[in-house]
Amino acid sequence: MDPFAAHERKCRTLAAEMAAARARGGAVALAKTTSNLFRHRDRAGARRLDVRRFNRVLRVDPERMAAEVEGMTTYADLVDATLPYGLLPAVVPQLKTITIGGAVSGLGIESSSFRYGLVHETVEEMDILLADGTVVVCSRRENADLFFGFPNSYGTLGYVLRLRIRLVPAQRFVHLTHRRFSEPRKYFEHIADLCARGAADFVDGTVFRSDELYVTTGQFSSQAPYVSDYTWMRIYYQSIRRKTEDWLTAKAYIWRWDTDWFWCSKHFHAQKPAVRLLAKWGLNSRTYQRIMRLAHRFTRDSGGAESVIQDVDIPVGNAAQFLEFLFAEIGIAPVWICPFQACDPAVKYDLCPLDATGLYINFGFWDVIPTTHEPGHFNRKVERMALELGGIKGLYSTAYYDAETFWTIYDRERYDELKRKYDADGVFRDLYAKCVARK
What we know:
The structure is a single chain. The chain has 15 helices and 16 strands. The chain is an alpha+beta fold. The protein has a domain at 3-170 and 420-425: Uridine Diphospho-n-acetylenolpyruvylglucosamine Reductase, domain 3, CATH 3.30.465. The radius of gyration is 21 Å and the shape is globular.
């Protein structure tokens, strides 16, 4: 069956369902099998549209170095489709369960982002389902206001059904080097220098303590003297402290963090040798995601602990100060470090409030902190410090901003213009209501 013909049929069906849901009134939400959101999702009374079937790679075009995919396609499926051509998406977020549409609706990132920017900067064209049931094509030339307003909108302007994204050449292996630093300012200066020189294909880092910081660079290679396997008994992040260099297949590099959800598999006892020996099939982000969903569904917060699951983007010049705050006031380790900068500084995305001319450091830190404070104490501290240092936090996780502060970060006037044009009746909740407000 022609995948594009099947796609068009699915679009017509979904558009009709959207129109019917809108006619009945009330909010509309998605029914889907994967989600990497870590905040409260209030769907009470919302009519749910089933988008799970929009999960196919429609075409890989090696000549144009582009792929057309449906919005719910996972990066795991896309990587499997592109690697046989010697190609990869320019930016592949860290977990197999992340969908292409989700990475654009949020702010997807990985260790190639210092070269290619965030995921939405690799998108050439999108089909978006609007609140009235119509599907519009948008690109830099067609419906450009929606194209540049959609990233980081979290489904509050529409749902992406199809995307054409940029691919880049890949080789069979990736050669890794891990370099240790003991002083944060020199560490971030080195990262800035690596990015400025374009000295590698991939750059990221791992911080275990304030005096134990590692920069990892990755370089594509057609050959390797050996390859390491971190999909079962060995754990990738632990290898960073033991090795100065390593070799992985390109596919193993792309999914190096997935086996242990970075290092969060410890919460599921999955780093214990006996568990790993017996449960190889379950060592992946999809398993951990399912466990988390069940835990949220069947257990209540008993107090005494606060979940701090955050990604924070800080200008590189202030990165050492933020790391000092993180260890002194929050106390979570390890911390993932990922540098990124805009691919084209001349292009502005309305809901991405970052300086397109500067280098940023993404800090990823995810843990549960024992506490006697009021709910949200540590998360609020993170938000305040990020603002003080000229950064932002990802909206995929719990946020505590008041409305006034939130709309000083994001362009309320521009967002309201887009909302009036593409969702005048408020079928989708607005960005603050969806990502922050609690009922």
